[in-house]
Specification:
The protein has 2 domains: 4-162, 3-Layer(aba) Sandwich (Rossmann fold); 172-260, ProC C-terminal domain-like (ProC C-terminal domain-like fold). Helices cover 53% and strands 13% of the residues. The chain has 12 helices and 8 strands. The protein has helices at 11-22, 37-47, 54-60, 73-80, 99-105, 138-149, 162-170, 172-189, 194-215, 219-226, 233-242, 245-264; strands at residues 4-7, 30-33, 50-51, 63-66, 89-92, 112-116, 126-132, 152-156. Strand 4 (63-66), helix 4 and strand 5 form a beta-alpha-beta unit. Helix 7 (162-170) packs across helix 12 (245-264) and helix 8 (172-189) crosses helix 9 (194-215). It is elongated and about 70 Å long. It starts with a strand and ends in a 7-residue tail after the last helix. The chain binds NADPH dihydro-nicotinamide-adenine-dinucleotide phosphate (NDP) and (2S)-3,4-dihydro-2H-pyrrole-2-carboxylic acid (A1CAB). Residues 7-8, 10-13, 33-36, 39, 67-70, 72, 75-76, 93-95, 116-119, 170 line the site of NADPH dihydro-nicotinamide-adenine-dinucleotide phosphate. Keywords: Amino-acid biosynthesis, Cytoplasm, NADP, Oxidoreductase, Proline biosynthesis. Residues 3-96 form the Pyrroline-5-carboxylate reductase catalytic N-terminal domain.
């Protein structure tokens, strides 16, 4: 079995470890690194996975998944440079960071795959987009696909699309959570008990998501089917349009894309 080490087991790193365990991988095939001993002990107690030093992770693992914040990448590259060779696959989950950064800083020929996942991997429903670096072979991509398809859906995209993917599906769950939060508040405004508002909105979100996934109907068709002539929904839609919610979403996602580009800037191949 492939040994996978997650470097930086924060929110997404932990989500990946937990998703891989849920999908049937053994704790003995997983490792992680963390810089705070308390966090390391907490994760080992929760999952039975060993926390190790980066050099040991590089020695024992076939795949090193980099899951530190993009701003924290420099020391990680410095630690990995002397201990990683072409037999180890690097999988970067970091927003904005190009595969060329790893290729430049690590030994010649080290294969790198850039991935943008999202947190629903905790429940086996991640959306992950993968892009090969210049030394990643079809076998490396297949290995990453196999690893990530055990925690959700996987598509391959050109690396040039990864900043847009990051803005859409990497950050995407946050937009839905924000919407749900606001709709629950609306229930409170209308005088419903919080628990009732939460139940109504969460199940409506689950139902709507299932309809999108399972009927394969366009969202416009599904929305029109809810919108009765002279009914309630059209009144709400008019308010959403009046408040520019569609334009706000376009601007918000564009801003997220711009931030991903900015996070990669200090590391792009020209600098
Ligand atoms: N959260 C998400 O939904 C998604 C995140 N990502 C990407 O994943 C990466 C991590 O994001 P997220 O999980 O949110 O961030 P977190 O800050 O929660 O996780 C990063 C973890 O790495 C630790 N860390 C930092 N430096 C080192 C190091 N040198 N060695 C070992 N551990 C280290 C951090 O410790 P400390 O607490 O001390 O900083 C922290 O626990 C980012 O690059 C982000 O772009 C991608 C897709 C989705
Ligand atoms: O907010 C972020 O920067 C990370 C990347 C995508 C989701 N979370």
């Amino acid at each position: 079995m492939t040994t996978i080490a997650v470097l930086g087991a924060g929110k997404i790193g932990e989500a990946l470890l937990s998703g891989l365990l849920n999908s049937g991988r053994g704790a003995g095939d997983l490792l992680f690194t963390e810089r705070h001993p308390d966090r390391s002990a907490e994760l080992t107690a929760r999952y039975g996975i060993a926390g190790v030093e980066p050099a040991e992770a590089a020695k024992r693992a076939d795949v090193l998944v980099v899951a530190v914040k993009p701003q924290d990448i420099e020391p990680v590259l410095t630690e990995l440079a002397p201990v990683v060779g072409p037999e180890t696959l690097i999988v970067s989950l970091c927003a904005g960071l190009p595969t060329s950064l790893y290729e430049r800083r690590l030994a010649e020929g080290v294969p790198v795959v850039r991935v943008m996942p999202n947190t629903p991997m905790v429940v086996g429903e991640a959306m992950s987009a993968i892009s090969p670096g210049s030394h990643a072979t079809p076998a490396h991509l297949a290995l990453v696909r196999e690893m990530l398809s055990s925690v959700g859906e996987v598509i391959e995209v050109p690396e040039s699309q990864q900043d847009a993917v990051t803005a859409l599906s990497g950050s995407g769950p946050a937009y839905f959570f924000f919407l749900v939060e606001a709709m629950i508040d609306a229930g409170i405004l209308l005088g419903l008990p919080r628990a009732v508002a939460e139940k109504l909105i969460i199940q409506s979100a689950v139902g709507a998501a299932k309809m999108l996934a399972e009927t394969a109907e366009h969202p416009v068709i599904l929305r029109e089917a809810v919108t009765s002539p002279a009914g309630t929904t059209i009144n709400a839609i008019r308010e959403l349009e009046k408040h520019g919610v569609r334009a706000a979403l376009l601007a918000a996602i564009e801003a997220a894309r711009d931030r991903s580009v900015e996070l990669g800037k200090p590391h792009d191949s020209a600098s």
